[in-house]
Give the backbone structure.
Amino acid sequence: MKQGSGKYLARKGKPTNSKFLKIKEDFEMKLSKYVWMLILAMFIFGFSFASLAAYTNVVPEDALKMLLENPDVVVIDVSPAYANGHLPRTVNYPLGDALDKAVTMLDLTGTYLVYCQVTQNAITGAQKLVDAGFDKVYLLEGNYNGWVEEGYPVEK
């Protein structure tokens, strides 16, 4: 073998084609980079996709239909303003200890409609149910005010 002929290069005591070796090293480097990017993406999105799963937004009209058609729907107000007015058939589990305790007692197979006076609190409450393993969780779009603006019944 002639050193420097461009055809062969001794590497780790084994003769190999230098062009092939360069292509192989480039491929391995790119593959390694993509594998790490894939692992990182799976790590990041795996957690965030799990936390984004799976309550369903419903407009007040659809929520009213749901309540009229299914008497087993549990309506949960996660706000501390329950006494100021709430949807019919509502139970009050404010965010925090009350909702945390309720989650351990509620039927995982039940259907739940969650709302609040504040959108972010309603989202947090609905997501807490989803994270606990509840499959049929609905979030009232527009929350309590959206319901009232549609002229639907409230209780005090």
